[in-house]
Amino acid sequence: MANYQLVLTTCAHKEDAHIIAKTLLEKKLAACVNVLPHIESFYMWQGKMARDTEIKLFIKTQAAKTHVLIDTLKQIHPYDVPEIQVINITDGNEEYFSWIDEVLA
Amino acid sequence: MANYQLVLTTCAHKEDAHIIAKTLLEKKLAACVNVLPHIESFYMWQGKMARDTEIKLFIKTQAAKTHVLIDTLKQIHPYDVPEIQVINITDGNEEYFSWIDEVLA
Amino acid sequence: MANYQLVLTTCAHKEDAHIIAKTLLEKKLAACVNVLPHIESFYMWQGKMARDTEIKLFIKTQAAKTHVLIDTLKQIHPYDVPEIQVINITDGNEEYFSWIDEVLA
């Protein structure tokens, strides 16, 4: 089991992304959030092809905090069913991980 | 084994990215495709450093569909040898995964 | 254990990203580096919310090279404690992976 995980989500507006990022940081559920601008999302909606401009977030956290992070993200996210995907971080800079631990302590 | 996976690829032009996204959605091989604009790619080509502007795609699918997705992507991709990388999604929003299942049924 | 891995890092300036990309390629520690422009990073620093514009790098390599890549990245990175996260690539285009092997041989 990885100790650290990357959580991906998307939202419609930069303001939403900023509120999500700040809330997760203030609640010590994430150590760092990258906000990627202006992505295009293609998906099927009620049988038709849909296309939106969205913002993608890369959220870095401890695996031990992920479940509470997911629940909190579902509560604060403007979408009814937000994309939330968790990816294991299997290795990296141990000093960076120690910084994550310190920030989320 | 993860039930859902994230497939990453790159291509040279937005038009190509849009064709790839639409084709995979129409063939029910992907539930959602994010298209990230204007990345720079550095790589070695025939012994020399090469640098291109590319588009990066984040493709979300069921693990059960990934092999057919890879084969289809290789057929429709403009590159001879496209970058196709699969990453396991280990956790996330169960309602979002149910939506993926519904869309890809 | 995955044979190929994706290494994520961030830095402050495009010039730094280009130096990192070229150095890793020249040292045969990475086959390809994607440089993503203008992301916003939110994080806590000394108890306060901080927000910076950064560049995100997606570095593709062989798992066998990852540890040396991490050590080299820590040496050449402008940050004291750079974010370096490693993600397993579990599947993909075998011809692309063969290209990685060829380039990193």
Automatic annotation (TrEMBL), chains A, B, C:
Descriptive protein name: Cation tolerance protein CutA
GO molecular function: copper ion binding
Biological process terms in GO annotation: response to metal ion
InterPro entries: Ion_tolerance_CutA (IPR004323), N-reg_PII-like_a/b (IPR011322), N-reg_PII/ATP_PRibTrfase_C (IPR015867)
Gene3D superfamilies, alphabetized: 3.30.70.120
Family per similarity comment: Belongs to the CutA family.
Superkingdom in the source lineage: Bacteria
